[in-house]
User: What shape does this take?
Amino acid sequence: MSKSSLKQTLKDLDTKKISIRELNQDYLKRIKENENLNVFIHFSEDNVLKQIDSLEKDNSAKKLKGIPIAIKDLFCTKNMPTTAASKILENFNPTYESFVTQKLLDEGSIFVGKTNLDEFAMGSATNTSFFGNTINPLSKDDEPLAPGGSSGGSAAAVAADLCLGATGTDTGGSIRQPASFCGVVGIKPTYGLCSRWGIAAFASSLDQAGIFSHNVEDASILLQSIAGFDQRDSTSAKVDIPNYFENLDDDLNGKTVGIPKEYSIDGTPKEISQIWEDAIKVLEKKGVKIKNISLPHTKYALPTYYIIAPAEASSNLARYDGVKYGFRSDEIDSLDEMYENTRAQGFGREVKRRILIGTYVLSAGYYDAYYLKAQKVRKLIANDFNKAFKECDFIVTPTAPSAAFPLNEKQNDPIKMYLNDVFTVPASLAGLPGISIPFGKDKNNLPLGIQILGKHFDEQQVFNAALSLERSYE
Amino acid sequence: MNNIIKGEKHDWEMVIGLEIHAQVKSNSKLFSSSSTKFGSSPNSQVSLVDAAMPGMLPVINKYCVEQAVKTGVGLNAKINNYSVFDRKNYFYADLPQGYQISQYKYPIVGEGKVTIDFKDGTSKDIRIVRLHLEQDAGKSLHDQNPSKTYVDLNRSGVALMEIVSEPDIRTPEEAGMYISKIRSILMYLDTCDGNMQEGSLRADVNISVRKPGDEYGTRCEIKNLNSIKFIKQAINYEAKRQIEILESGGTIEQNTMLFNTSTGKTRPMRNKEEAHDYRYFPDPDLLPLEISKEEIGKIKSSIPELPDELKNKFIETYKLSNYDASVLTAEKKTSDYFNETINSDSELNNHAKIVVNWITSELFSLLNKNNQDLNNSPVSPENLGQLIKLISTNEISGKIAKDVLDDMFSSGKTARQIVDEKGLQQVTDQGEIAKVIDQVIADNPKMVEQYLAGKDKLLGFFVGQAMKLTKGKANPKILNDILKQKLNKKN
Assistant: This one.
């Protein structure tokens, strides 16, 4: 597979080396060839052809005109159903377009389909979807691998070259970890950079839209297209969005990178420690000052996250009650029964587990011990980063504690599954931007990922460091 | 005020606190731009946010925040620079989000107080604990179909102010006066339309009973009462119920009660064990609400004269009693009417008491009888002022004036027109009146005899006869004087 980049494709379209129709037919062909990966919850060739037709009639210049993009099925879209990978929204057709997808449409991109995910973005392997597992395109024939999650469908879509970029959402690592597992670039920007309007909510204080792409340059182009203030989202930030792509600069000479000692965890595979060291060496060679830093509350990040995220989810998912839209159970003799049966039959195991956890930690008598405490720890974790960033320009860590694992390996052990987020969750709690780029391989030749974290709204620095590492690795 | 209720065995006292839910007067909802118009067809005023579609987010309506701050100032309360919206989680068919956005730990308005005035001239302060902003739910319609419940979300998301009082109220009457006073303040401020029939103002009543001087007893909460009459009825019934239980040796269960308006009885809706755990937590979709001192100052300076200020002004300027002034200022339309009437002629300034009486008794009873409202009274303030001036200058008698007002009310004519057309000017000419009296005395010799023999009561008879002859126009004082003179001369 020789993958064309978004940057190159834009040039080719511009110079008429290739037409929008030719380009997309190429992708359509590959999408149909790869149906076995179960990347898409919704795919309609007709729908794609219609978009091509209408773009061909459109003479205006648009930044992403004709570019095939895959959309995580958590973003509400007007012209395609939106399910959040849940039975409870199986046949839901929004009448509105999310902020992020509207921006992509305004730029002229073509939506090839809605990608699979863990139900309501709750999972790390794209194996809690009502619509079945997605298979990591890098799997060997004898052993199907998980693509990571929750945005596993989007990561796999880019890895299998079924699109030139994809949207994802990241609550505790849902973009960075699957990017690492599938060997693609994935960026979760600062909380508030992209509006959450029209994204089915999982945990409102953590959810953030982001991008998957083949490389750092492409990610910088796409992120700029989806970022921006939106008055319909009170947590959306009023900041100027720089031209990330134009400002890319892989010269890191004189910068300081922070290496947090708490990210050396016992039991981390040697290969992971190895690529981390390699990355540090590369940076050192490029004139980057290496600074050992401490983020002392890191060990509390996972438990904190697994209190706050389920707490918010338990409330956010209360709206799926069978009254207004989506699935409603047939077995109803009373209002209470309608709720019970609709939600019992409409939600999967992992979603129910998190609703139960969230309900518990918010209950009278437990609130102070769990939710309130977790909020306090969250502040401490954010303060750790604030302090660290006084001494460094960016932080480098591994993205995940392992390469892609076999599909059903951790399905029955939620705690093991939650440990996947160990390196990604702290930055989520602090609202910081983070990118994962492919960097090295494990002994089975599976890709591993390096994570770069930046200061609030300093996506440019994150991109620059990522570009520098990417170029040295290639 | 006597607050004691006599039980079979003991004396008892009620302890009452009110939670008033007042709909914020605003064209759009608390977190969406949908209209709040009352009585529109079901589900015609529902945005994606109100229906809790996936991915929809609330955005605070600044106008509603200003209205709440205004109300806080009107309740003499502390305005909090920092407040937080929380989610109150529970399932109900007409609660689309599965939670209500409310304020829990950090309300927008803190402690305040309002004053209620009694007829005997005394007053009492009722302390307010807090005022917070919250969303209203939709409406479940159970009577549209025998086997189904329909849901109307027009009201879903409409802004409410919940005003919580301390348990400072001791009688049903005080409860009624308190809610009237709150309603009056909100209407002066124009922050709530005060329409209880349409549900713009409703109250939950917390009530317990105790032997005077004892600690507070266990309370019950009566939900969702939408008229002052029902509030009083419900309190009376509930207090009686609690006293009966306690006197027969029982204990009160902390229940949430519903009041049945047709039977006049309360019944338990749920007990303490069945109470919801609302799992309040700060709404992560909304930032904390921060209001600067400057913004509060700006809102304060825009506030109109409130009933208590106006009341004091009326007492001082017109030497009215506390009670008269409080009746006059209970509703803005009444004080406006009074102001316009008394300002229509400078001479009326010295006859304020007469003006009050003519508004609050004569005009009000006419309006009541005809089911009309002061806002569209057929008698304008200027015309009423003219009528009162005719009385105060002795041009017509008070008795005639009542007939004139009746006529004004139905014909729309001015007092002057009617008096002139019908020739109702009071007869003050002494000679003319003396002539009439002479005739009455001449016509009733037997009566005169009896009067002179000591039957003083007959004086009224002569007055009546004389009035009849003058068609009621004789000045009563002059008539009386001359009559007595002439009768006494006969002695």
